[in-house]
């Protein structure tokens, strides 16, 4: 299994590109890597290592889902503070000047040309890679994220969020099946929802193409160790297989986990 450092600097990386199951796994925030040309965006080491820069544990879980379903995965190898691939170019938080409690000096007062350059270098190849997958008969998209247990000083009780935009087919099935497979507090559109701008990938590649889609948000204290990540991935695989089959997307039950 690849480590986050193995994909550093790659705008888009395929894992299990030839996977036979018609499901695309996507991990937009797989890496905290900031190219040297940005001089760390002026951030402290603490900020560069924090959740503000990436989604800890998400890439491992995404890979386990891809291999468990025998499905292709696309991941970004650049920190979301350089470009958040789950945001459109016109969104201010595609290159945020502040993320949670951290100011991002390297993103202050970016010029139109600077924003366009980052868009072309990082977002365009990533978006094109996901778009390319859509031409291979993909029938469902699953994006994988993690979130902090405490946000702006407020503890979060939710442990697993199942998010959707206007197409809730896969999310509905997962929310129905989750109680049979996990005791985690599992909620719809928590800790974020469409109103927070987090469903960009789902809308562009799923909703607009009539492809079933869902975004998974896992509280990152549940992903702190390899064993925890493995257990979470196995639980999600059980829910996903059942839910995908219920909405008419066939998954190989014998796929290696």
UniProtKB/TrEMBL annotation:
InterPro entries: N-FG_amidohydro, UCP029730. Keywords: Hydrolase. The keyword Disulfide bond does not apply. It comes from Falsihalocynthiibacter arcticus. GO terms for molecular function: hydrolase activity. Pfam families: FGase. Gene3D superfamilies: Zn-dependent exopeptidases. This is N-formylglutamate amidohydrolase. The keyword Hydrolase applies. It comes from the Bacteria.
């Amino acid at each position: 299994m690849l480590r986050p450092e193995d994909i550093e600097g790659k705008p888009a990386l395929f894992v299990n590109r030839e996977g036979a199951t018609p499901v695309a796994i996507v991990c937009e925030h797989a890496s905290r890597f900031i190219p040297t040309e940005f001089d760390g965006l002026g951030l402290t080491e603490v900020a560069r290592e924090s959740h503000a820069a990436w989604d800890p544990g998400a890439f491992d879980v995404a890979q386990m889902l891809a291999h468990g379903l025998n499905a292709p995965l696309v991941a970004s190898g650049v920190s979301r503070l350089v470009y958040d691939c789950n945001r459109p170019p016109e969104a201010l938080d595609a290159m945020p000047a502040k993320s949670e409690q951290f100011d991002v000096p390297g993103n202050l007062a970016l010029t139109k040309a600077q924003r366009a350059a980052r868009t072309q270098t990082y977002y365009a190849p990533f978006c094109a890679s996901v778009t390319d997958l859509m031409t291979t008969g993909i029938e469902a998209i699953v994006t994988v994220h993690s979130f902090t247990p405490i946000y702006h000083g407020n503890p979060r009780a939710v442990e697993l969020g199942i998010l959707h935009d206007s197409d809730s087919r896969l999310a509905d099935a997962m929310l129905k099946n989750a109680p049979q497979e996990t005791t985690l507090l599992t909620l719809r559109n928590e800790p974020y929802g469409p109103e927070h701008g987090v469903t960009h990938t789902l809308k562009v590649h799923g909703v607009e193409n009539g492809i079933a889609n869902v975004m998974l948000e896992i509280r990152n204290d549940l992903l702190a160790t390899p064993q925890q990540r493995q257990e979470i991935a196995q639980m999600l695989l059980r829910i996903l297989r059942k839910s995908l089959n219920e909405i008419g997307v066939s998954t190989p039950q014998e796929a290696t986990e």
